[in-house]
Write a structure and sequence with these properties.
The chain is built from one helix and 59 strands. It has about 750 residues and is mainly beta. The two termini are about 40 Å apart. Belongs to the glycosyl hydrolase 74 family.
């Protein structure tokens, strides 16, 4: 599925990192002592969806049967448990301050020391992001030692699907190489503990954002792809060293548009041939040309072995433009390899296989039979399921020639017979979660709004939703999700879509129908939406992905007609009063003012002012079952509460930072709902619960379960005290329960 608009992953994470820490005086005060006690033991698990994000690399260990690793662009790294047939997440311990390290730029294993694993981590290489790091493990990722770098890495930048930029030197296990985007080639001689520039590497640091795009060993020689050349004599794009000291450009290398950027490489030890895939851009998007070439390393002879050249036309006359991405050799069969196309939208991406060194090829898609029953969101109603898109991660099991896996923008597929394919995704969850609802009644305890794959209705937390993505219409990324408090069968959603941007449900989110009409701006800026407690009024705010805001609109006929609400603060998130259907609220973070409506959203007036302002990371939440009981998570400025519909707010002194807040079932004997928040009561940003209206808090996550950026949404279950659902930006939906 192609997302209709750019993902908010970069924007969201960038905003979080770029904002400056400021102290804001309290507006009023509520005398709660800052107290955090040792919390109950919680068990944390993923609410199962199955993948949903871009798997950028897969690596089988060359000397251990059944051992493999996967990396993702924003959701960490995983180890394959062959006995349990599932993936184990490896870096969930990275916390709030290290959110930028959840994107994995590269990984490496040591063929002679099977327990050693190395990760180069860093999501963004932008100025507002922190520097990268190298994580080193002696126990296959169970525990880690970390070395912070002085350079930035880009696990979610263009080129993230290229090859591994990290390599254990084939001559010496203590020596590692790390290719960077802006700072050339780095070298470590103490197994990654310290790093220095490899000054003999001839390609120099630059600002383009690609740099060294892969490192691969061919016998005792190391090859490095350079993403900022074009193959000509003046700007080489492929280098090598035979001694680990001197580097030189590889002679005879291909050049031209189709071979501009080397993307991945694989070495056949039997035939002593190096296969390289190329594109005209680093990808995963924006590519229109590419090729595949092989180098006979003993003679220096290059041969083009491109399966199908881009640039033709499809049966409907569309231009068949694409590049090549993944490449992997069969360790058991000389001359046998697979390569993948990438960014081939007209005819669809595929994996080609050759058994004769690339002289002839077979497209595995032509005979593929897919079973996506375990992850129904991958079935989009086509006569034949898509083979996938953005195929750059590609691997062949060194112990089983017919065991092939490849990553896509949404999952990881595998086969054991080169014909029947199914997701190999258990345990790997990478969705970027935007909204969460836990209904008070009904079949599902959870409805989620996600980046890239719309809205999900979770009948069970331990299996991918049987209905898959919400349809009629299909959204890419969800931007709004709301339920009528007094009429929970009524749910509305908004998002990026090509066939409408808003929908409603009369059965609690199981099935949907599009709004009969929508404002013109909805197509370009579908923002958050709210429904009154009785479902009689809809209030829709409009925010373009670039941050531009527009006037909100209101409907009283289930979306059949809409009228502008000029007094609503542009860009704000509408919040419905859960007890009074005539009341709505909105927080204007530009000027720190609470706005309220008492006429069903027709007009809004300013109430409390002088509240924290200046950044969009504010969450206004209404306490369930109460009218006018509002809570404001004000980021580094803490937590505020109003009990008079926003006329006044008092600061809650029990925490100094609050990023998001939600409610769940009250504890036995308590007269107020349980409150859950991501915030800081002392020094650490964590997940907390309060059973006494925020007087005291208990931390309910632990150091092993932190998941980086978790400030988007949190909600408790209104039917089960203690159960909480947490949105992460790359590790899916986490849910915790006391044990």
């Amino acid at each position: 599925m192609r997302t209709p608009r750019p993902s908010r992953r970069t924007v969201l994470a960038g905003t979080a990192a770029a904002a400056a820490l400021t102290a804001v005086p309290a507006v009023g005060s509520q005398a709660h002592a800052a107290e955090t006690t040792a919390g109950p033991s919680y068990r944390w698990r993923n609410a199962v969806i199955g993948g949903t994000g871009f798997v950028t690399g897969v690596l089988f260990h060359p000397s251990v049967r059944g051992l493999a690793y996967a990396r993702t662009d924003i959701g960490g790294a995983y180890r394959w448990d062959d006995r349990g047939a599932r993936w184990t997440p490896l870096i969930d311990h990275l916390g709030w301050d290290d959110w930028n390290l959840l994107g994995v730029e590269a990984m490496a294993v040591d063929p002679t020391h099977p327990d050693r694993l190395y990760l180069a981590v860093g999501t963004y290489a932008q100025s507002w992001a922190g520097n990268g790091a190298v994580l080193r493990s002696e126990d296959r990722g169970a525990t880690w030692t970390r070395t912070d770098l002085t350079v930035k890495l880009g696990g979610n930048e263009d080129g993230r699907g290229a090859g591994e930029r990290l390599l254990v030197d084939p001559r010496d296990s203590d020596t590692l190489w790390l290719g960077t985007r802006h700072d050339g080639l780095l070298k470590s001689t103490d197994r990654g503990a310290t790093w220095a520039a490899a000054t003999a590497f001839p390609a120099k640091a630059n600002s383009s954002g690609q740099g060294v795009v892969f490192l691969v060993a061919a016998g005792r020689t190391v090859y490095a792809g350079w993403g900022d050349g074009d193959g000509t004599s003046g700007t080489a794009n492929l280098y090598r060293t035979a001694d680990g000291t001197t580097w030189g450009a590889v002679p005879g290398r291909p050049s031209g548009t189709s071979a501009k950027v080397p993307l991945r490489a694989a070495y056949d030890t039997h035939t002593r041939e190096l296969y390289v895939t190329y594109g005209d851009a680093p990808g995963p998007g924006g590519q229109s040309d590419g090729s595949v070439h092989k180098l006979r390393t003993a003679t220096g002879t290059w041969t083009e072995v491109t399966p199908v050249k881009p640039g033709g036309t499809t049966s409907d006359g569309s231009a068949d433009t694409f590049a090549y991405g993944g490449v992997a050799v069969d360790a058991r069969r000389p001359g046998t390899l697979v390569v993948s196309t990438n960014n081939r939208w007209a005819d669809g991406d595929t994996v080609f296989r050759s058994t004769d060194g690339g002289r002839t090829w077979t497209s595995l898609k032509d005979a593929a039979v897919f079973d996506v029953s375990e992850t129904p969101f991958l079935d989009w109603g086509d006569d034949k399921p898509k083979f996938g898109w953005w195929i750059q991660a590609l691997a062949v099991d060194p112990y089983d020639s017919q065991h092939v896996v490849y990553g896509t923008g949404a999952t990881l597929y595998g086969t054991r017979d080169l014909k029947r394919w199914a997701p190999r995704i258990r345990g790997l969850e990478e969705s970027a979660v935007r909204q969460l609802i836990s209904p008070p009644v009904g079949e599902a305890h959870l409805i989620s709004g996600l980046g890239d794959i719309g809205v999900m209705y979770h009948e069970r937390l331990t299996a991918s939703p049987s209905r898959g993505m919400a349809t009629n219409p299909v959204f890419g990324s969800a931007t709004g999700l709301a339920q009528a408090a007094a009429r929970p069968a009524y749910v509305v959603r908004t998002g990026w879509g090509d066939h409408g941007n808003g929908a409603y449900s009369h059965d609690g989110g199981r099935t949907w129908a599009p709004f009969e009409a929508q404002p013109d701006i909805a197509k370009d800026a579908p923002g958050p939406i709210a429904t009154s407690a009785d479902g009689g009024t809809l209030l829709w705010s409009f925010v373009h992905w670039d941050g531009t805001t527009y006037a909100a609109h209101r409907s009283t006929d289930n979306g059949a007609s809409w009228s502008e609400v000029s007094s609503f603060p542009k860009g704000a998130t509408p919040v419905a009063d859960p007890a009074d259907p005539t009341r709505f609220y909105a927080y204007d973070f530009d000027n720190g003012t609470l706005y309220a409506s008492t006429d069903s959203g027709r007009s809004f007036t300013a109430r409390a002012g002088g509240l924290p302002s200046g950044d969009s990371q504010f969450k206004l939440v209404a306490a369930p079952g109460r009218s006018g009981d509002l809570w404001l998570s004000a980021k580094w400025n803490g937590l505020y509460r109003s009990t008079d519909g926003g006329d006044t707010f008092a600061r809650i002194d029990s925490c100094w930072a609050s990023y998001t807040l939600g409610f769940g079932k009250a504890a036995d004997g308590a007269d107020y709902p349980a409150i859950y928040q991501v915030g800081s009561t002392e020094t650490i940003t964590a997940v907390y619960r309060s059973d006494d209206a925020a007087r005291t808090w208990v931390r309910i996550n632990d150091d092993a379960h932190q998941w980086g950026w978790i400030g988007e949404a949190v909600v408790g279950d209104p039917r089960i005290h203690g159960r909480v659902y947490l949105a992460t930006n790359g590790r899916g939906i986490q849910y915790g329960e006391p044990v």
